[in-house]
Amino acid sequence: MSILILCDHENGQLHSTTLNTVSAAKQIGGNIHLLVVGDPSGKVAKAAASIGGVEKVLAATNKALENKLAENLAPLLKSLAAGYSHIMAPANTTGKNVMPRLAALLDVMQISDIIKVIDADKFQRPIYAGNALSTVSSSDTTKVITVRGTAFEAAEENGSAAIETLDSAEDAGLSIYMKSELSSSERPELTSAPIVISGGRGMQDGANFAMLEKIADKLGAAVGASRAAVDAGFVPNDYQVGQTGKVVAPDLYVAVGISGAIQHLAGMKDSKVIVAINKDEEAPIFQVADYGLVSDLFDAVPELEKELG
Amino acid sequence: MKVLVPVKRVIDYNVKVRVKADQSGVELANVKMAMNPFDEIAVEQALRLKEAGKAEEIIAVSIGPTQNQETIRTALAMGADRGIHIEAPQDIEPLAVAKLLKAVVVQENPGLVLVGKQAIDDDCNQTGQMLAALLGWSQGTFVSGLEITGEKAIVIREVDGGLEHIEITMPAIVTVDLRLNEPRYASLPNIMKAKKKPLDSQNATDLGVDIAPRLTILKVEEPETRAAGVKVANVKELVSKLKDEAKVI
Ligand SMILES: Cc1cc2nc3c(=O)[nH]c(=O)nc-3n(C[C@H](O)[C@H](O)[C@H](O)COP(=O)(O)OP(=O)(O)OC[C@H]3O[C@@H](n4cnc5c(N)ncnc54)[C@H](O)[C@@H]3O)c2cc1C
Ligand SMILES: Nc1ncnc2c1ncn2[C@@H]1O[C@H](COP(=O)(O)O)[C@@H](O)[C@H]1O
């Protein structure tokens, strides 16, 4: 068995969920190869080669792949597929965009967002916003899989795999990358941060998120949000935690002015310790919180910042 | 241009789902069903394109049991022009749905298919991308902005790092995200009018598509529930608990 993993990266940095995906692949067993696309500096390929248990890194250098457009990337993956029993990617926006396109080209049914490997054909995945867990067995010859990063440990970076370059790729001519508007932050990345502090509709406006940012800076935390806070324009879309946003499982998750709808819980209920600050003692978030503080956030949050020294 | 909008009938997002005792799936009997929320956004976008003179006809398609016709009626009440129901099992997989939708696309020849980014029951997030692959069309996924100019469209995509703008060639598949628009409610007169709009029904097996499942569901179970913790009296107590008891700060 051989497994191919499509690496995820941003701004020349290997995304940590790639390390989690390698761990999932190790549980399946077999030779693990990584594919890196859109990495002109070669930095990501080098980082990928240092992941323990990886046999080979394929660095695809063709310009058509630079922006990871699904129309160009899926055919490349398809051309490599014959050599692999499993093709995997982190369940991030790149993987979610490309992998189903690949699966259809291969005429296989993708297994989305796995949280457990039972064996090479059987996997567990959440359905209904994580309110049920489904164990499925696949009869397809090539398994196309996306992996929920928070469900697997990060593989260690103690390897030294060979890097092979790969130039074959074609521009399908169907789409053109124009530009990105990326939120930049000095804080840790949301899905891998050890501490996350999120704000909801209770924050009232975007400027009030500065209160959360001050605490985040003291704790080395990332800042997240509920859908309501994003929809209201308080913070950008990439802050959204939940069923249809990002899934996080930090050591500490602090929910401020968030009611705790199931769609939000779906993205954070596997956090080790959950704190909720909400003025409504009936808020459902308290049913999952290890420590609940019933208080007006505009009193509690500044005080919390002071207490943290 | 015709716009095709696949709409899925799912358990209403407000309902707390229950796993069946025999672990074969979740309880669907006597549970409130509704149109997948992302598909409401897709229907709304199609209506806005029509209102802007960029689309002539909106066709809502739903694949599943007979009751899915109710979901099509909802789309018609919002303003879609006609419906196509394809009779199929409730738990049909995205790959099979994409193949059936391809057959409909070949029949109807739309210039755009607006698909939900994700069905909130299976949480697969696959169908649109698969359909794009089967048709060899371009895809704009997780879209929060859509501007069509003739042969091309510019889409704004919600990605992990923020937003991405890409230009896609028409005809195209666009999968819609939460921030694209706010769907309208169907008014009572429109609900009445929708009852008279054409709704064609056909059987999946007549479309010459293999819809046999590729995945076997071995077991569906409840996740472990999280025990509720304690309430703290004030911020000082919270901080000391986090430091001394939980040891996370
Ligand atoms: C298809 C679909 C997908 C969705 N996906 C997601 C998702 O990925 N992520 C997500 O988060 N949601 C998602 N939702 C939305 C979800 O259902 C809820 O609407 C949303 O999570 C509510 O956000 P909120 O808790 O910030 O707002 P609200 O539910 O309005 O809660 C605000 C809370 O703030 C408290 N509050 C107000 N003022 C104060 C104050 N001064 N001090 C203290 N507390 C205060 C209130 O008591 C209340 O509990 C989705 C919904 C749908 C239909
Ligand atoms: N049975 C179905 N009937 C109509 N549309 C569907 C069906 N299943 C999926 N879709 C469409 O595909 C989208 C994504 O579904 P999924 O890939 O299952 O997450 C949905 O939002 C619908 O637009």
What does this protein structure show overall?
- The complex is a heterodimer of chains A (309) and B (249).
- Chain A is 24% helix and 28% strand.
- With 309 residues, chain A is α/β, with parallel strands linked by helices.
- Chain A has a 7-stranded parallel β-sheet with strand order 7-11-6-1-4-5-12, with helices on both faces.
- In chain A, helix 3 crosses helix 4 (93-105) and helix 5 (209-219) runs parallel beside helix 8.
- Chain A is globular.
- Chain B is of the alpha/beta class and 249 residues long.
- Chain B has one domain (2-244): Rossmann fold (3-Layer(aba) Sandwich), CATH 3.40.50.
- Chain B is 27% helix and 31% strand.
- In chain B, the strands form 2 sheets. Chain B has a 9-stranded mixed β-sheet with strand order 9-8-7-10-6-1-4-5-11, with helices on both faces. A two-stranded antiparallel ribbon of chain B has the order 2-3.
- Chain B is globular.
- The termini of chain B are far apart.
- Classes of the chains: A alpha/beta (309), B alpha/beta (249).
- The complex binds flavin-adenine dinucleotide and adenosine monophosphate.
- Flavin-adenine dinucleotide sits between chains A (200-202, 226-229, 240-245, 257-259, 261, 263-264, 267, 278-280, 283, 296-298) and B (13, 37, 120).
- Adenosine monophosphate binds next to helix 1, strand 4, helix 3, strand 6 and helix 4 of chain B.
List the ions, cofactors and other small molecules found in this model. Answer: flavin-adenine dinucleotide, adenosine monophosphate
What kind of sheet is the major sheet of chain B? 9 strands, mixed
Terminal residue distance of chain A? 53 Å
Shape of chain B: globular
CATH homologous superfamily title of chain B? HUPs
Largest sheet of chain A: 7 strands, parallel
Kindly state the number of beta strands of chain B: 13
Number of strands of chain A: 18
- How many distinct domains of chain B? 1
In CATH, the topology of chain B is named Rossmann fold
Mean pLDDT of chain B: 97
Uncertain regions of chain B: pLDDT < 50 for 5+ in a row? none
Radius of gyration of chain B: 21 Å
Q: Which structural class best describes the helix and strand composition of chain B?
A: alpha/beta
Strand order of the largest sheet of chain B: 9-8-7-10-6-1-4-5-11
Q: Summarize the amount of helix of chain A as a percent range.
A: 10-25%
Q: Structural class of chain A, please?
A: alpha/beta
Name the poorly predicted regions of chain A: none
